[in-house]
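User: Before I run my own analysis I want an independent prediction to cross-check against. Here's the chain; please return only the structure tokens and, at the end, one sentence I can use as a sanity check.
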Amino acid sequence: MSQPQRIEPVEAAPPPRRDPAIDATIAVLDLVFGAPFERAYDIRLWDESIQHGRADPRADFSLHIRRRGALRRMLLPPSELSIVEAFISNDIDIDGNVESAMGLADAIGKRIQSFSGIARLIPRVLALPRDDASPPLDETRYARSLRLLTPGARKSTEPEIQFHYDVGNDFYALWLDPSMLYTCAYYRKESDDLATAQINKLDHICRKLRLQPGERLLDIGCGWGGLVMHAVENYGVQATGITLSAAQAKFAQERMAERGLSDKCTIQMMDFRDLPINGRFDKITSVGVTEHVPEDKQPAYFARAFNALEPAGLFLNHCEVSTRAARRTNSIGERIGRWLWKRDQFIDKYVFPDARLVPLASVIGSAESVGFEVRDVESLREHYMMTLRAWLRGLERGKSDAIKLVGERTYRVWRLYMSAGAYGFRTAEINIVQTLLSKPAPGGRAGVPLTREGLYDSDHRARGKG
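Assistant: Structure tokens:
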């Protein structure tokens, strides 16, 4: 009879060892983003474990820490720019509504912008792993500085202007409306689609200017020519647009030829400082240009427009302004804090280099200082929030095509910039204002009627062509 075989006991496999970087990362997350009960969003780590926040049905985004070394790179040194670059490099991602996450940088700043906060944070950040680095950011595109409309630029500005537009017309066409209007739309109803709202905006501008058949209109910074073509077709004017972008000028000229408008529209490659010094235009528009003129040069900008206008002519200036800048004390401590935190350097480096938003009072003061009279001021803050959300939806729908055209990093830059803009307008940190200015004629004639009723006349186009 055979002996039964002895069965050796099988030792249980040891449980998988927890990545030591997890605990170090969680400690930093609690310092930077708040303990789980303080935040309404979840944070997913690179191993797919989730650090849950408090239950909140309003939470519509979560963070994804994609690499072991992501937080170290994001927080050494801690700044608004380094946080943003963590997103651009895909070290950290935002799942869900990106706009909702745009307050995180300010929230982080409030937590750690103190000597005690830094003292607690730095040792923990130094304990984070260095490995698993993301690919380095390609800085080639962003190494240049956009000296837009500044004295040193004069004849060399054109290549720098193209910084924001050299991603190509095809990229913009993915998410702009068919008229290629890259400025704030005007929503008469919340249900308006983007194309309708942009046509509303063009009509709103033309009505404010009281355009009449045969008048001469100048559009400074005309983009792809949407406003000048609309004004010619619907208000019977002769229109000139000036731009510093060759790609935009070529596109606009082709569109004008297709629509049979070349005899009534002109698009020129021209710096605004080369405008004629003697009045020759009845009406002038500037939509989204003043933001790029340094504050101390804005009086010269308005003076050039003033000189180009006929007496009793109207100038509509449409620009973004900073309500946050208006609230600043600009003390030494505040300036040092902005410098250390690299406030707004994302926009400066990646989107609109050297653009600076100033308070509305500064813009109006510059206009009045050269002789303009303010006749109407209208905030379109909510309209730009809605416009940016519409652009963002279009960009996200066209994600794969956008990445093929410009690469993933540039796609992420634009997605972040649009989300940050929508957040800024929603929270009233920035505003966008249309200011109607008059060049009074001798005797004080201003060129405007007594009331604004004509702005809402449904029969304006038929009478405008009269």
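Sanity check: The first strand starts at residue 43 and ends at 44.
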